[in-house]
Amino acid sequence: MELADIAIKFGLIIIIFLISLVIAMYSTYAERKIAAFFQDRVGPNRAGPWGILQPLADGGKMFLKEEIIPTNATPFLFIVGPSLAILTACIGSAVIPWGQNMVIGGKVIPLQVTDINVGILYIFGVVSLGVYGVMIGGWASNNKYSLLGAIRAASQNISYEISMGLSIIALLLVTGTLSLGEIAQQQHGWHWNVLYQPVGFILFLVCAFAETNRTPFDLPECETELVGGYHTEYSSMKLGFYLFAEYINMFISSAVMATLYFGGYNYPGMDWVAAHVGPIAGPLIGTAVFFAKIFLFIFFFMWVRWTIPRFRYDQLMDLGWKILIPLAIANIVVTGVVITLLN
Amino acid sequence: MESLSNKKKQLTVKPLNFLERAYLPAIVSGLAITMKHFFKKPVTIQYPEQKREFSENFRGMHSLKRDENGAERCTACGLCALSCPAEAITMQAAERQKGEENLYREEKYAAVYEINMLRCIFCGLCEEACPKEAIYLDGDIVPSDYLRKDFIYGKDKLVEAPLNQ
């Protein structure tokens, strides 16, 4: 690997890292603004024009707040929890293909940090690591509410990971590869996987809500029952990291959904556009389309949050084990039969 | 047994049909409802910048009036303080000196006139009690402040601005 390649990769990593942080930051603003619009309110509008600087003000507040570590907490694990949460949230973006390869001066620049051939498994691994952040943080707090929230998070993530994995298996039968880069390439134009796997997509969507602890599955931080859930004892930027991790997770899972089911950077008529605007602008437009899809998914996450009330915990488990898993298995069987018959 | 009022109604709980049990159609209709609200104009009034119109008989902050020559009308009779159910008003009377005829209308005036805005209930009994038409609650909403002592409004805040000659 040449030095230039390393520099390019490094630059790409930094850009993606910054983008995911900025998007997470502005997701908090978007969430409050969108919530306000759904409830016929105005939303934050004091910091800067239309409240644009609100995330900066919130971040500054978080940094300046007093750092509190409860006496009976385990200090090391108490700090490891949020660190792990934000770490696992940030490394998920490594395998996502952000755009087609760009050719600048005869050099091919892939807009993907690394196209490992088990990309989906990597995402799954990272996502399942994410629950450790919540689990360790809730446990180290030495507080019954935190512990309950953490246990809820753990069991919820484990249950929904199963149906998520099963829904992915049906997708893999269609695509024949685990590499996210190849999956995105296969959906050239309008051959989006959601057209072949609508049930799988709905399953994946529901599981993504559960995995990111978003309403209607936000029981780990259920305020009405558990004070603050797993981050009851957290203050200052450690709390900020938990909240931040949630929004980054939302961004990453939106990106994964857009890549797996909604064609990633592909859009109808992309060949015509690419032929007309050249080899640099073409992939960039694809990337812009990809981000538009991501933002639509983030909006959908928020839309659902301000529409549907929280599930009861037994209903959540019923849905995961008794409905989603059988449905996912049936989806695999039907997909397999159809593929065998068509071949 | 026959019900006396005949208003009793036998209700049956129908089991949910498949679509209702599937829950997804309900979610979709819920999403449609929230989306309708998304495009509604918010009813918020941005308070310090925008103000809702007050009714004509709105009772806001007090003002001590001047007469047509710009002299203070208040004679420190104390009827307002007497009528005040919240005991928010205190005053100290003083005698008008020679040469102050253009400042005070009558021979006696209020040297100190204080209203505790934290006690005031804005009932308007003081303006009804005043025989000299000197006090009216025709001002704005009393602004917020940080210290209790700053809510005791003296003559500097209460007396109307002098007439422009």
Automatic annotation (TrEMBL), chain A:
Keywords: Cell membrane, Membrane, NAD, Oxidoreductase, Quinone, Translocase, Transmembrane, Transmembrane helix, Ubiquinone. It catalyses: a quinone + NADH + 5 H(+)(in) = a quinol + NAD(+) + 4 H(+)(out). InterPro entries: NADH_UbQ_OxRdtase_su1/FPO (IPR001694), NADH_UbQ_OxRdtase_su1_CS (IPR018086). It is a multi-pass membrane protein. One of its GO terms (molecular function) is oxidoreductase activity. The keyword Cell membrane applies. It is found in: Cell membrane; Membrane. Its EC number is 7.1.1.-. The keyword Membrane applies. The chain crosses the membrane at residues 6-26, 76-99, 119-141, 162-184, 190-210, 241-264, 284-303, 323-342. It comes from the Bacteria. Belongs to the complex I subunit 1 family. NDH-1 is composed of 14 different subunits. Subunits NuoA, H, J, K, L, M, N constitute the membrane sector of the complex. NDH-1 shuttles electrons from NADH, via FMN and iron-sulfur (Fe-S) centers, to quinones in the respiratory chain. The immediate electron acceptor for the enzyme in this species is believed to be ubiquinone. Couples the redox reaction to proton translocation (for every two electrons transferred, four hydrogen ions are translocated across the cytoplasmic membrane), and thus conserves the redox energy in a proton gradient. This subunit may bind ubiquinone. This is NADH-quinone oxidoreductase subunit H. The gene is nuoH.
TrEMBL record, chain B:
It is a peripheral membrane protein. [4Fe-4S] cluster 2 binds at residues 84, 120, 123, 126. [4Fe-4S] cluster 1 binds at residues 74, 77, 80, 130. Its cofactor is [4Fe-4S] cluster. Belongs to the complex I 23 kDa subunit family. NDH-1 shuttles electrons from NADH, via FMN and iron-sulfur (Fe-S) centers, to quinones in the respiratory chain. The immediate electron acceptor for the enzyme in this species is believed to be ubiquinone. Couples the redox reaction to proton translocation (for every two electrons transferred, four hydrogen ions are translocated across the cytoplasmic membrane), and thus conserves the redox energy in a proton gradient. This is NADH-quinone oxidoreductase subunit I. The gene is nuoI.
